[in-house]
Amino acid sequence: MATLREIRDRISSVTSTQQITKAMKMVAAAKLRRAQENILAFLPYSYELRGMIGHLVALSGDLTEIPLLEKRPVEKVLIVVVTSDRGLCGAFNGNIIRHAVQRIAEYSNREVAVFAVGRKAYEFFSKRDYTVHDHVINIFNHLHFESAADISGRLVALYLAEEFDRIEIIYNEFKSAIQQTLRAEQFLPFVPDEEMEKAGEEIDFIYEPGKEEILNQLIPKHLNVQIWRTLLESNAAEQGARMTAMESATENAQELIERLTIFYNRSRQAAITTEISEIVSGSEALKEN
Length: 289
Known about the structure:
It contains six helices and five strands, in the order αβαβαβαββαα. The chain is an alpha/beta fold. A five-stranded mixed beta sheet has the order 3-2-1-4-5. α1 packs antiparallel against α6 and α4 crosses α6 (211-288). The longest helix is centred in the C-terminal third of the chain and has 78 residues, at 211-288. The radius of gyration is 29 Å and the shape is elongated. The protein starts with a helix and ends with a helix.
């Protein structure tokens, strides 16, 4: 049975851990607020760019001359897996990696490689029987648009060089502090979605030079923005998951402290009762002598 000193040490240890998790929750909450502000700041630009591309696509006839829209027989696939660089964020990384593994298995009859964004993805896939074509780590501590443009540029170069016929991205989309949505999107070849074309219907521009030339300039910019949005969403989702995990850890620590305190008090009372009984018994023995 644990001694009173051991129980006190255990309570002190759990209390210290609780203080750490509480501080980590506050830090994650502050980072989450900044991440949300960054998402809101870039939305107007993203929406207008999507609208311009949607309008151009709707007006253009033959788009086969635009390389990033070219569809090829899918023989080689690149999966971009976006995780965090650090842990202590619940099932945030595990869900992404699990879905990426399932997605890779679906391409069993094709050549598949991984582009790992985040230390957790790189550590998982590099230590197992997967082909890691490229990786980027330690970008979420100081997240800049240049990082997104660099990743997008690498992916575009791989597609244009025909090293891969399809590029997909798997990441967590931020919904709220307690909810993240797992997303798997096709990055290349670029395919305008219905929302993009709908946004383009509300815009009327006079284009100079031709539409194809402008699309060749706008699509890479949009891909940069898409990667930037992915990183921002993933970062916000990570901070939300970490804040929730640390809140849960803090509450669990409090419950453990309360149980240990009750156990300590009971043990202390039992020890005092035992000591009193021994004193009384000793006193009675002296009286008899």
